[in-house]
């Protein structure tokens, strides 16, 4: 167990688990549409910070788990997570040098991409109608990115996650 803590895998798994819990916890109906994509933001952070360790396979596995937990069509969130994290990993060096405001805008764009991919696949598979409300989490995620980044960076530094 101490070997896992030493290299930070356990710490990262705990943050991913917490992100998953925030993603599926029930919220009042009035704020449900504005729920930030916690798990995606956690994955974006780890893909930017450690792209060699947490990338497309991790995103795919977490997408399958989220589909199972939400009772959604299996594989939709895996596809969306994988595409978004692929872009993050390919541009991780560039993204790390942006200011927090620039990063938060890009995170919102990535979350819009994530929701658009989910919509597109749901449209092809189930014929769902387009709803602009699917982009509301991107707006709330702009403001939550600062907090997510700060918390995860402090965790990464204090536990020396490499």
TrEMBL record:
Subcellular localization: Cell inner membrane; Cell membrane
Predominant cellular place of this UniProt entry's protein: membrane
Signal peptide (from-to): none
InterPro entries: Cell_shape_determining_MreD, MreD_proteobac
Membrane topology designation: Multi-pass membrane protein
Key word Repeat present: no
TM stretches of this protein: 6-26, 68-89, 101-120, 132-152
Keyword Membrane among UniProt keywords: yes
Keyword annotations from UniProtKB, A to Z: Cell inner membrane, Cell membrane, Cell shape, Membrane, Transmembrane, Transmembrane helix
Stated family: Belongs to the MreD family.
Role according to the record: Involved in formation of the rod shape of the cell. May also contribute to regulation of formation of penicillin-binding proteins.
NCBIfam families according to UniProt: shape_MreD
Protein name: Rod shape-determining protein MreD
């Amino acid at each position: 167990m101490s070997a896992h803590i030493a290299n930070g895998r356990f710490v990262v798994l705990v943050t991913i688990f917490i992100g998953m819990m925030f993603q599926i916890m029930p919220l009042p109906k009035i704020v449900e549409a504005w729920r930030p994509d916690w798990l995606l933001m956690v994955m974006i952070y780890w893909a930017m910070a450690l792209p060699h360790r947490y990338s497309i396979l991790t995103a795919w596995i977490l997408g399958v788990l989220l589909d199972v937990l939400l009772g959604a069509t299996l594989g939709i969130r895996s596809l969306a997570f994988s595409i978004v994290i692929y872009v993050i990993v390919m541009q991780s060096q560039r993204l790390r040098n942006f200011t927090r405001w620039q990063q938060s805008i890009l995170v919102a764009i990535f979350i819009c991409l994530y929701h658009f991919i989910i919509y597109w696949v749901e449209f092809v598979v189930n014929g769902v109608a387009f709803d602009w409300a699917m982009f509301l989490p991107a707006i709330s995620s702009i403001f939550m990115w600062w907090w997510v980044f700060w918390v995860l960076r402090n965790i990464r530094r204090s536990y020396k996650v490499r």
